[in-house]
Design a protein that fits this description.
Blueprint: H1 3-10, H2 15-26, H3 29-52, H4 71-84, E1 88-92, H5 98-109, E2 115-118, H6 125-131, E3 146-149, H7 160-166, E4 171-177, H8 190-203, E5 208-212, E6 231-235, E7 249-253, H9 255-265, H10 281-311, E8 315-317, E9 329-332, H11 336-348, E10 370-374, E11 386-390, E12 396-400, H12 405-421
Parallel strand pairs: 2-3, 2-4, 4-5, 5-6
Antiparallel strand pairs: 1-7, 6-7, 8-9, 9-12, 10-11, 11-12
The structure holds pyridoxal-5'-phosphate.
Pyridoxal-5'-phosphate is lined by residues 97-99, 102, 124, 126, 177, 179, 181, 212, 214-215, 235.
Length: 427
């Protein structure tokens, strides 16, 4: 036996699981090489932005209190704007998570009487409470912002006629979610999002198009802001934080939109001037620098997962051979026991809390029990190896992350090992 085989055996991976994994990996060489090319491009894009903005050690010193004249924060926001090719950016630890960043973006633009449209069907679960689709304190609905959604067509494409009909004089803003979230619909490519935005702007160029970019950053060489989005929004405990950002979110966009977000985040009259960074700036920069590589590993892990589980007869979205536009892999088991075992395996593969067993619970923001596997350095960071599954039909698990490909692949091997151990799947 090779040393690696012995090591894997000690880590709970049977010879069968290892052999199958090696075969699957062998078949993916060309796809992995194509991902490496995207990463190379994005690594240079990020590095170039840091160099052009003269990033220096002095920027890593944090501020406290009001945080006036925080040059690290100002440089960080310039670097983000440079990477996303936008006029401005807001990137701050005061944004607590992705949902908060999205709420900030929407509530900074929308005023009473305005209408918001999702032209891509149902948005991410936590958006339901933001919008007021589910009654909730502080929702946009409470502020008299109305909402419509236009479902996708059966083949997953945009319903252009429906979108045109839905747009009214009151339509102020569109929320366009790039990634599938907790759905099995396809994730959109940046190019598709560009076509959608052009169509909307063709009807009324004043409509603000916001893209929820969660999980999409650095998967492609262009971002939604390169194809007409007025605001691009995401979480720093996902792709662009590179596993190092301990908190935070970003909004990149036009100066007018980002300024409004500053005033909404802090207070009218204060805007971007306040907001101490408390010593997180270096991690924001270093995480951003690492992000293209981290996304590379996560993408390869997702493709590995799709190929392995499709081989075993399970339905994967995206499937084994489809192109990728985000780092999420959905695998449908149609069986609560299997999704629990899958998540247990992911948890047992973690560097942190690998000895605990996850169980389904009623998480805030979700309308049913959810099981989550996350043994992360940054609590809840889903750029780290993680899996979530809402406990209802069709019992689909959403797998994402892994700060390196080796870890992502091991997580998947371990999920299969757990399914094997419980007699639910035979590799
Ligand atoms: C993760 C995610 C969010 C919400 O981010 P949190 O950090 O979990 O609040 C919103 N939209 C999409 C598409 C996401 O993937």
């Amino acid at each position: 036996m090779t040393n690696l085989k012995i090591l894997y055996e000690q880590m709970g991976i049977s010879e069968k699981v290892l052999k199958l994994s090696e075969e699957i990996e062998e078949s993916l060489k060309d796809r992995f090489a194509a991902i490496d090319k995207v990463t190379e491009y994005n690594q240079m894009k990020v590095l170039g932005a840091m160099q052009r903005n003269k990033l220096s050690e002095a920027h890593f010193a944090g501020t406290t209190g009001y945080g006036y004249n925080d040059i690290g924060r100002e440089t960080l926001e310039k670097v983000y704007a440079d990477i996303f090719h936008t006029q401005a950016a807001l990137v701050r630890p005061q944004i607590t998570c992705g949902t908060h960043a999205l709420y900030l973006a929407l509530s900074s633009i929308l005023r009473p009487g305005d209408e918001l449209i999702s032209p891509v069907g149902k948005p991410y679960d936590t958006m339901e409470e933001i919008i007021g689709i589910r009654k909730s304190t502080g929702s946009l609905a409470e502020f008299d912002v109305s909402y419509k959604q236009v479902e996708l067509l059966e083949d997953g494409s945009f319903d252009y006629d429906g979108i045109k009909q839905a747009i009214s004089d009151k339509t102020k803003m569109m929320t366009i979610q790039r990634s599938k979230g907790y759905l099995t619909r396809p994730t959109f490519s940046v190019k598709q999002i560009g076509e959608l935005i052009s169509f909307i702007k063709g009807i009324n160029p004043e409509i603000i198009c916001m893209v929820d970019n969660c999980y999409g950053e650095f998967v492609d060489i262009i971002e939604p802001s390169d194809v007409g989005a007025d605001m691009v929004v995401g979480s720093l405990i996902k792709n662009p934080g590179g596993g190092l950002a301990p908190i935070g979110g970003y909004i990149c966009g036009t100066k007018e939109c980002v300024d409004k977000a500053y005033y909404r985040l802090t207070a009218p009259g204060l805007g971007s001037e306040v907001g101490a960074t408390l010593g997180v700036t270096k991690d924001f920069f270093q995480g951003l620098f690492n992000a293209p590589q981290v996304v590379n590993g996560a993408l390869k892990g997702a493709i590995f997962a799709a190929n392995l589980y499709e081989h075993l007869g399970f339905e994967c979205t995206p499937n084994a051979s489809e192109p990728r536009h985000d780092i999420i892999q959905a695998i449908t088991f149609h069986d609560p026991e299997k999704i629990v075992a899958f998540c247990e395996g992911i948890q047992y593969a973690a560097p942190v809390d690998s000895y605990v067993t996850p169980t389904p619970w009623a998480m805030p923001g979700y309308d049913c029990d959810v099981i989550m596997a996350a043994g992360a350095f940054i609590s809840g960071a889903s750029i780290e190896l993680s899996a979530d599954a809402p406990m209802h039909e069709p019992y689909t698990v959403y797998f994402q992350g892994g700060l390196s490909y080796d870890h992502a692949r091991f997580g998947i091997m371990k999920s299969l090992a757990r399914l094997e151990e419980k007699g639910l799947v035979s590799p």
